[in-house]
């Protein structure tokens, strides 16, 4: 018997050895009994249908048990038939993904009517043994007054989502949340049409072994399966009748059969069907302000744009005209300006089921979003220049499912039990891709247009220096050779370069008319007398090409005409092959599988404004790629041939220092017969002013990659693309970057993630166990530094046998792999200490806390490692090694047992892991680190984050309609990622990330559910939570370590520590037809098919860190630090209440007649959807000194009064500062009212 069991298991494993994924399949299981005698009935034929399709079947065994597996989530009709008994039809049996629906069937003996069918409605039990979270089907979702997936997940206990943002599960970081659509882990947009959602399931605890790669929770969405008859609908939603936010959406859905076999016959079968849903949305402001938005009045804004500069009333120079704006020039509007969002969301699939045992599903989703982003600093003066983002996401899958064990033939009445009761496998191929482009809405990908203010022409003359006596023969000076003769010159004027005489400006072809007004204003004030590029740039008033206006009062607001974006694009792909197998063997439900996935992420960006500055820097001029040709002097003579004491020279290109850009651009100008400002043809002696040419004259391939990377001050960023923005495929070597300055190729980020799991669910007496093991392997598939504390290889103690000709004896506690530090890297004569990873030792091998002791012991006063090659400090292949794949073994244990027939106890132990974020680090980050030590780098050697979770719970049935659950949980999170300063790294300190954070979360939840109590359905829950840790997010300590302080290692409340959370979800509805039980007025059922849904979510305030002193929080250009008051995150925001409601009323309407002359009916539904119907101003943030959302206390402080006195216009400064304090980001969303009209047919 054991051999047979093993053989069956091995056979099924082989069938699924290609891959693994979340199967998203459910099961119906139960016992068939005689309704009177309660005796079990064997060989009863059980069939299930989904939307009219035959979805499977089974025959009850000798104990009356049956099981039907591999079922797509949805509402099923279960049919039971047996000779001598009336047929039973049970409708709306809910099947959830990866769960078992227990359904016992009772049958009555047949009466006089042979074809009698007893129809029953399924009631979802109040207490379910196999339930991991909260599930809502499509009908329930339509009654929820919210269409956001995150907000729907937020209905359950232990989940926290703020205004529809990514939820946190039981205190975990929101980055630990995973999304699945039809079993596919989603990397892009998760928005789906509401009519394209069949079920939403929220996995909070007791996580099955088939789920992984997250440390919080998961939201799984399944789409509705096709129907055997054509159905469809159209819906229109608008808010334009009620507000200026203009939320408008049209949505439609269709489903039906494509091919029906044996149509019209008794054994007809639909074997090919489809399901489709899609919507189009436009919103003028999809995140409106609860307090309104301030803007400059239109007439005043036009005035500012036309005359953005004025003479400074204090001192000299110019100041922005916007620094004289006062409250009288402002007005408040209800909606934000110029932030429209257009989106298209599509979902569909085709289902092919040739028989009851095989199913092939091909489907996918498509999303496109065209959004102009919101910038608060732009909102007052510069909202017309908000950046545009285009996002397109595609998800596709092809899934094959086969049941391996045929149902028992009831006519044969098999007596012997089968070894394998049921078995199936599912194999899926999946592809996802998300494309994103960020750009200026006007300039788009025309990158040289971004900075183009206008045409500037430089007029110049030679410049000279006086040369006196020299040391030549007879007191001669400089020596020249002319026609073979040697000439000594002294007391003469020698040309030393060129001097600008006029810098003319022509704005006629400007690409940025408002920015051109700055320059025009400046020229007008000076009557056009601008001498040079340097004068114009130094003015900080007029703008050169590539220049942006200075901010208003130290970047309190951006000024008119400011372009805040460059151009960037990215693509993230995911290829996955997966499968899952399941078999029931002697009471053991075995589930197993493996999974393979590779992601390909690539990105490209251009700092388009900065291109013009770089071109000017790279253009050849004397001393920069060009020199004076002193070997061919030009002596100046008068008309009589008398020397005039002046020697001139022609300018010539210096090929040893000429830039690639200058060489290519000069070549382009010569080939196209271009002339200089004096009308002379361009040649290799021409002084070229790039600002005198139009954007169409430039191409990015005129530069080398090395020039655009600019020693780490990069004009371009790229990986997976070349420096020109063309895709690069395949993995690239380190040498492709380090040894090719022209191209500096950087490959895409291509991590590989694989997983395998096995899970057994079985019963031991009254105990139900689910025991699983998941093994995950993550390979970042990229190079990492051999030593994060040095860009160059360091000698180890085992390699250092002698120093300066003397034998070396290392201290006894120093291992051979410890790194050695000396007194001078280039001339080492003594060892000063050692290091093992990030643990430091002095020269005697004694551990020390501060490596400054080693630095002070060197001849240079800085850390000095004993480098392998001190004469060649170059980042190359020797500095790197391959990422070491990380393997995590993750056990999962869950059990449940009944305390009584109306109460159950359950517990689970889960270990879950998630691949690291902030890990991809392109080679150029390290290559230029020596020159850019202040940049924050990702860490390519980060490890997965791990959570250990314990949970116990108790469920009690109170009545047939209500139940209560008590749940306690404790979770510990390790290896969380936090910003980290690599102190005393060589050659520079730098900030990156490390797996140093940890957190502990303790929680207690109470859940109450009331179902079908007349017209009322309600669930309520309360969560008590203590979430403490060393950091709330990957960058929560960056300000601290940037100031030179060490990372905090104490536990403090996390920023998602919601201490108290109370939720009430209430749904009251009157049914239609014979089920109507509401008031009747003059014979009319006035509330037929009407209802109301309401969500109330109250939670105690989030923690924040209070300050002792006021700081100018609205001035980005002013840095004032304050010591904290109390402890980090020791203060709390006020309580908040999220409240949403919708009221709906449906009508049965005639839609004509079908081909048989029968009347066709549809349903017309009107819904009034109100979010924040109480119009509460929830406080989302406060200023850390005052604890208020309205003021930061700065203006009333001594330093604030000094700032007011020093301002160009004190009244303007105060008014604009107070206006900036009215930040809508400190408040929740206002009341939003939308009208829905939907027709189903």
Structure explained in plain terms:
- With 1241 residues, this protein is mainly beta.
- Among the domains are: 2-121, Immunoglobulin-like (Sandwich); 793-872, no CATH class; 914-1205 and 1233-1240, no CATH class.
- It is 10% helix and 43% strand.
- The chain contains 15 helices and 67 strands.
- A hairpin with a 7-residue loop joins strand 11 (159-160) and strand 12 (168-169).
- Mean pLDDT is 92; it is low at 1-21.
Q: Please give the oligomerization state of what you see.
A: single chain
Average of per-residue pLDDT values: 92
Number of strands: 67
* Fraction of helical residues: under 10%
Could you tell me how far the N terminus lies from the C terminus, measured between alpha carbons in angstroms? 56 Å
In terms of per-residue confidence, which ranges show pLDDT below 50 for 5 or more consecutive residues? 1-21
Largest sheet: 22 strands, antiparallel, barrel
How much β-strand is present in the residues? Answer: 35-45%
Shape, principal axes of CA atoms: globular
Class from secondary-structure proportions:
mainly beta
- Number of helices, where a helix is a run of at least 4 consecutive DSSP H or I residues: 15
What Rg do the Cα atoms give? 37 Å
């Amino acid at each position: 018997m054991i051999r047979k069991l093993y053989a069956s298991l091995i056979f099924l494993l082989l069938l699924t050895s290609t891959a693994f994924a979340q199967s998203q399949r459910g099961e119906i299981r139960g016992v068939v009994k005689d309704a009177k005698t309660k005796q079990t009935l064997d060989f009863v034929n059980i069939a299930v249908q989904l939307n009219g399709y035959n979805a499977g079947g089974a025959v009850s065994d000798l104990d009356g048990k049956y099981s039907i597996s591999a079922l797509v989530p949805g509402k099923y009709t279960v049919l039971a038939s047996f000779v001598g008994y009336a047929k039973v039809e049970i409708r709306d049996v809910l099947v959830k993904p990866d769960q078992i629906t227990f359904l016992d069937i009772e049958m009555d003996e047949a009466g006089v009517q042979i074809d009698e069918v007893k129809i029953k409605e399924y009631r979802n039990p109040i207490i379910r043994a196999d339930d991991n979270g909260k599930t809502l089907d499509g009908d329930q979702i339509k009654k929820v007054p919210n269409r956001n997936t995150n907000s729907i997940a937020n209905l359950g206990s232990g989940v926290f989502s703020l205004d529809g943002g990514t939820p946190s599960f039981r205190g975990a970081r929101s980055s630990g949340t995973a999304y699945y659509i039809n079993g596919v882990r989603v990397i892009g947009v998760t928005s789906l049409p509401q009519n394209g959602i069949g079920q939403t399931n929220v996995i909070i605890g007791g996580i099955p072994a088939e789920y992984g790669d997250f440390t919080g929770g998961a939201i799984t969405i399944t789409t509705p399966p096709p129907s055997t008859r054509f159905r469809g609908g159209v819906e229109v939603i608008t808010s334009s009748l009620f507000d200026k936010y203009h939320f408008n959406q049209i949505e439609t859905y269709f489903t039906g059969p494509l091919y029906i076999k044996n149509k019209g016959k008794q054994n007809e079968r639909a074997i090919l069907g489809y399901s489709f849903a899609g919507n189009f949305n436009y919103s003028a402001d999809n995140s409106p302000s609860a307090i309104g938005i301030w803007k400059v009045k239109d007439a005043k804004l036009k005035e500012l744009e036309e005359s953005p500069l004025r003479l400074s009333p204090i001192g000299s120079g110019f100041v922005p005209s916007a620094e004289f704006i006062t409250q009288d020039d402002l007005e408040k509007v209800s909606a934000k300006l110029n932030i429209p969002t257009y989106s298209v969301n599509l979902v569909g699939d085709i289902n092919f089921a040739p028989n009851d045992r095989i199913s092939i599903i091909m489907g996918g989703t498509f999303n496109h979003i065209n959004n102009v982003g919101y910038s608060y600093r732009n909102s007052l003066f510069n909202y017309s220049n908000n950046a545009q983002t285009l996002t397109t996401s595609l998800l596709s899958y092809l899934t094959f499912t086969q049941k391996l064990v045929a149902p028992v033939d009831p006519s044969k009445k098999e007596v012997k039990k089968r070894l394998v009761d049921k078995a199936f496998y599912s194999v899926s191929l999946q592809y996802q891709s998300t494309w994103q482009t960020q750009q200026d809405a006007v300039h788009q990908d025309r990158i040289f247009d971004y900075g183009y203010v206008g045409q500037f022409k430089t007029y110049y003359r030679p410049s000279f220096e006086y040369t006196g006596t020299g040391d030549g023969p007879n007191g001669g000076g400089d020596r020249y050779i002319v026609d073979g003769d040697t000439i000594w010159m002294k007391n003469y004027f020698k040309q030393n370069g060129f001097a600008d005489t006029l810098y003319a400006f022509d704005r006629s072809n400007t690409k940025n008319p408002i920015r051109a007004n700055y320059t025009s204003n400046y020229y007008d004030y000076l009557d056009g007398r601008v001498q040079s590029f340097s004068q114009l740039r130094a003015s900080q008033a007029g703008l050169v090409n590539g220049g942006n206006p200075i901010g208003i009062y130290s970047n309190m607001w951006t000024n008119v005409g400011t372009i805040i974006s460059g151009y960037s694009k990215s693509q993230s792909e995911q290829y996955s092959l997966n499968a899952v197998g399941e078999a029931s063997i002697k009471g053991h439900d075995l589930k197993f599988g493996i999974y393979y996935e590779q992601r390909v992420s690539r990105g490209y960006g251009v700092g388009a404004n900065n291109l013009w500055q770089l071109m000017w820097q790279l253009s050849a001029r004397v001393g920069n790629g060009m020199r004076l040709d002193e070997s061919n002097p030009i002596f100046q003579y008068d008309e009589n041939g008398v020397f005039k004491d002046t020697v001139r020279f022609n300018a010539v290109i210096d090929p040893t220092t000429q830039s690639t850009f200058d060489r290519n651009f000069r070549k382009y100008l010569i080939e196209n017969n271009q002339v200089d400002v004096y009308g002379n043809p361009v040649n290799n002696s021409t002084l070229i002013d790039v600002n005198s040419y139009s954007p169409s004259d430039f191409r990015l391939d005129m530069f080398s990659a090395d020039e655009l990377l600019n020693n780490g001050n990069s004009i371009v960023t790229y990986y997976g693309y070349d420096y020109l923005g063309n895709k690069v495929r395949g993995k690239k070597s380190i040498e492709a970057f380090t040894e090719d300055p022209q191209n500096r190729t950087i490959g895409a980020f291509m991590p590989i993630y694989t997983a395998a799991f096995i899970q057994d669910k079985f019963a031991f007496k009254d105990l139900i166990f689910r025991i699983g093991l998941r093994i995950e392997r993550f390979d970042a598939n990229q190079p990492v530094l051999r030593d994060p504390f040095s860009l160059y290889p360091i000698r180890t103690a085992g390699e250092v046998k002698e120093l300066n000709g003397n034998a070396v004896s290392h201290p006894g506690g120093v291992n051979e792999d410890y790194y050695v530090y000396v007194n001078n890297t280039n001339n080492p004569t003594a060892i000063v200490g050692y290091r093992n990873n990030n643990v430091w030792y002095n020269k005697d091998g004694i551990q020390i806390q501060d490596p400054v002791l080693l630095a002070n012991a060197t001849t240079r006063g800085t850390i000095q490692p004993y480098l392998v090659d001190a004469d060649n400090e170059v980042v190359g292949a020797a500095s790197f090694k391959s990422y070491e794949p990380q393997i995590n073994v993750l056990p999962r244990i869950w059990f449940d047992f009944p305390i009584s027939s109306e109460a159950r106890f359950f517990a689970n132990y889960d270990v879950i892991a998630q691949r690291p974020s902030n890990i991809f680090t392109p080679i150029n980050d390290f290559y230029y680190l020596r020159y850019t030590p202040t940049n924050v780098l990702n860490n390519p050697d980060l490890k997965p984050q791990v959570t250990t979770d314990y949970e116990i719970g108790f469920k009690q049935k109170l009545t047939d309609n209500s139940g209560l659950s008590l749940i306690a949980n404790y979770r510990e999170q390790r290896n969380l990622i936090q910003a980290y300063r690599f102190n005393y790294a060589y050659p520079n300190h730098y900030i990156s990330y490390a797996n140093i954070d940890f957190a502990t979360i303790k929680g207690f939840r109470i859940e109450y559910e009331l179902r079908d109590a007349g017209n009322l359905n309600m669930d309520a829950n309360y969560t008590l939570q203590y979430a403490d840790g060393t950091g709330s997010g990957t960058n929560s300590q960056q300000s601290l370590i940037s100031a030179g302080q060490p990372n905090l290692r104490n536990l403090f409340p996390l920023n998602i520590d919601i201490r108290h959370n109370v939720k009430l979800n209430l749904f009251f509805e009157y049914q239609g037809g014979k089920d109507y039980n509401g008031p009747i007025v003059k014979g009319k059922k006035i509330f037929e098919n009407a209802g109301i849904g309401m969500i109330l979510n109250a939670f105690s305030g989030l923690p924040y860190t209070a300050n002792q002193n006021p700081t100018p929080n609205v001035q980005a250009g002013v840095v004032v630090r304050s010591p904290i008051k109390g402890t980090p995150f020791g203060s709390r925001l006020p309580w908040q209440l999220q409240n949403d409601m919708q009221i709906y009323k449906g009508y049965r309407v005639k839609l004509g007649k079908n081909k048989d002359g029968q009347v066709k009916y549809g349903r017309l539904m009107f819904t009034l959807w109100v979010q924040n119907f109480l119009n509460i101003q929830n406080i989302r943030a406060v200023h850390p000194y005052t604890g208020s959302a309205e003021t930061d206390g700065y203006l009333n402080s001594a330093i604030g009064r000094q700032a007011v006195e020093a301002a160009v216009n004190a009244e303007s400064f105060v008014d604009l500062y107070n206006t900036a304090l009215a930040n809508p980001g400190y408040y929740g969303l206002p009341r939003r009212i939308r009208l829905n009209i939907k027709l189903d047919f």
